[in-house]
């Protein structure tokens, strides 16, 4: 049978199918056009990240920029270094030579610029001309951040932002510029208070949080004026607490990883309730910019200091007047203590409250008014918190026994005075030398008749590892004065009989002294 002129079965099916689809499309109002079909786009259902928008919206009107003018020459912000560490307006040259941060940056050739506000830091000069009309010769020298703590215009910022200023301008979140006067400042905690001159206006303000409840890992939000960009918001977490960065005796910083840069100084770090947990004051950076390591003054410290500054423009602290150092485990072992806590008295200052009360070299202060002392920094903070002219009971560890001394604290603001430095000869010329082989040092009577001059230190000895050097002087061993190698031997023999494994050496260099615990050779 011929198939010419007949459509194939495949053609018939294809034609009928298309016709049927077209008929359906037409009957349902869908355009008669065939389109390709695609899979649905990817969609993921996941927990929503927390938003900080509500917090930022509420607190932003309380955060301000602080502009400072003075007749000082502006300081360039370009240090030309690979590393920089900016804190509290205190330069690296103010740190002890053996401070780990100073050694680190010297090794890597870092330079030490001023405060993180990007202007001059470390100078705390009192000026008679604060606020008011601006003389024509004034020029911008610093810029930082701040925040209102009262509706009548009190602003908190850093001391190092305003320390050299003669005229101050507060810039609000909406761009309004208002003149301000310096109420007071405190270099020891790097805090300052300004007062905006606007009596007819009420300001949005924020409150301090209870930073004792702040935990490592909590979310925080920093608001400030980095690089002059007002109203900048960054977020992060609390990275650590109780940081000591060597900027002063009251270091107790909260470390956060929120982006904090130059110009954030004096700005607040908030918790998610919109309360201030800390005041940004320092950054650690290899480039001068943010690397996620920033330090904030805790709210508990700031709250008390700011209250004093608002009251009378100054901060008065209790003063004990003793030079102290931490108690290491080696020192604790040398003195028969079970735990390495408290503060070791290196020397009481002449005429200080501590000396008048009977505190001596080698005493370990264990508690004040029954409050245990963790370390040297803890003692400094607790004594300061009592205030001047306060009578306290100081619990000591002396000669293997506990005792308590009543002390009337002085006023740090008026009584504090550095003891006179006594120059020591760089190259003592001892009359005779004797080796203390077990310790790896050679000593001779000091020229001034007090103590023993160290004339040689074995570089492989424990004494060298502990930092003992030629030219230094040993004043006492286990709090007993020594003037010969034989005196040292007698003290060490007694320590062995008492079951001690270490002895406590008081070492003096360049007018200041410290304690070093050295091992006793058993046998």
Describe the structure.
- There is one protein chain.
- The chain has 523 residues and is of the alpha+beta class.
- The protein folds into four domains: 59-196, Beta Barrel (Thrombin, subunit H), CATH 2.40.10.10; 211-309, Beta Barrel (Thrombin, subunit H), CATH 2.40.10; 318-413, PDZ domain (Pdz3 Domain, Roll); 434-519, Pdz3 Domain, CATH 2.30.42.
- 18% of the residues lie in helices and 31% in strands.
- The chain is built from eleven helices and 28 strands.
- The chain has helices at 9-28, 53-59, 100-107, 159-162, 299-312, 329-334, 353-357, 376-386, 412-415, 462-465, 485-497; strands spanning 63-70, 84-87, 139-148, 154-157, 167-171, 177-186, 191-196, 219-224, 232-243, 253-256, 268-270, 276-285, 294-298, 318-319, 322-326, 343-348, 364-368, 371-372, 391-398, 401-408, 410-411, 434-436, 441-445, 452-457, 473-477, 480-481, 502-509, 512-519.
- The strands form five sheets. Strands 22, 23, 24, 25, 26, 27 and 28 form a seven-stranded antiparallel sheet that branches. A six-stranded antiparallel beta barrel has the order 1-3-4-7-6-5.
- The longest helix is centred in the first third of the chain and has 20 residues, at 9-28.
- Mean pLDDT is 77; it is low at 9-28, 75-85, 87-92, 107-132 and 414-433.
SSE diagram, text form:
Elements: H1 9-28, H2 53-59, E1 63-70, E2 84-87, H3 100-107, E3 139-148, E4 154-157, H4 159-162, E5 167-171, E6 177-186, E7 191-196, E8 219-224, E9 232-243, E10 253-256, E11 268-270, E12 276-285, E13 294-298, H5 299-312, E14 318-319, E15 322-326, H6 329-334, E16 343-348, H7 353-357, E17 364-368, E18 371-372, H8 376-386, E19 391-398, E20 401-408, E21 410-411, H9 412-415, E22 434-436, E23 441-445, E24 452-457, H10 462-465, E25 473-477, E26 480-481, H11 485-497, E27 502-509, E28 512-519
Antiparallel strand pairs: 1-3, 1-5, 2-12, 3-4, 4-7, 5-6, 6-7, 8-9, 8-11, 9-10, 10-13, 11-12, 12-13, 14-21, 15-16, 16-17, 17-18, 17-19, 19-20, 22-23, 23-24, 24-25, 25-26, 25-27, 27-28
